[in-house]
Design goal:
about 80 residues; mainly alpha; 3 helices
């Protein structure tokens, strides 16, 4: 059995500009929630996703893509196993 070393991805720490943007967004969200008391966390998440399109794939899309890749790999493996007989 071969050993494949795995190095986990560690994202770089946020820049000062990113931290400032985060602080401003948190302040703005807090003000909005005070003005609109019924605002849920889901609505805030949806609004952030709508406000920043193209900043990354959603978790659902990534999950579907990983599932499809695994299915294709399994299909290719089974095909090769039966073709070798």
């Amino acid at each position: 059995m071969s050993f494949v070393p795995v190095t986990p991805y560690i994202p770089p720490p946020p820049s000062p500009r990113a931290r400032e943007l985060s602080r401003q967004l948190a302040e703005l969200i807090g003000q909005f929630q005070l003005e609109n008391p019924g605002t849920s966390a889901t609505e805030v998440q949806q609004a952030l996703r709508l406000a920043a399109p193209g900043t990354g794939a959603s978790k659902a899309v990534v999950g579907v893509m990983i599932g499809l890749i695994l299915l294709l790999a399994l299909g290719a493996l089974l095909f090769l196993m039966y073709a070798a007989r």
